[in-house]
Design a protein that fits this description.
The chain is an alpha/beta fold. It is built from six helices and eleven strands.
Length: about 210
Amino acid sequence: MIVLHRHDDGARSVRVVELRRDGGRLYFDGQVLYTHVDSNGDNCLDYITAMEQALGAAENVLLLGTAGGALATRIARRGGQVTAIDDWAPAFEIARRWFHLPEAVECVHADAVTYLLSTTRQWDAVAIDVFRGPKIPAAILVSGIGDLLANVLAPGGLIVWNVADAPLSWSTQWIARALRRSGFDVVLISVLDGDVGNTLVVGRRAAAAKD
């Protein structure tokens, strides 16, 4: 592997490396792999592919958490509009320089919850991929997160939330309950890579009851 870029500012310790065998690039935060793309910038991670599939044909997507921007790139390349939020500003420069993030992706430096509280915009879908190392930070697991997400969704919109854990883990079940309390129908999608994997918590607003 060839180290292309290092950024260590006390908040994050990020390395971008290139694989000699095929030109693929990887984004590591500490020892945790966040992004892997091929030499054309196409995603190589199963959970990102599963998130894209779960989002379906959503044309306007809010992405919370960016890293190398593989999901944002996939959505933009199929013609979707993406607003990417990250509380670590260098992530956007790294994603554009090393991971082919298109200029069309709108990048906003902000805390995810603060942004949800302040925006009046709405999207067809919200994709959430927010981590500190392998863990979802407690700052986003706040009471009322389901309502905040519902407020930024257009009618019929959906949530796709990535959890780096099993379906029965505490974090997966907490997120599923939070979305259900806010009126979402929830499905859990397990994405396995060998014996380990991720779980996608997919929520769509329940249809209004008919009189």
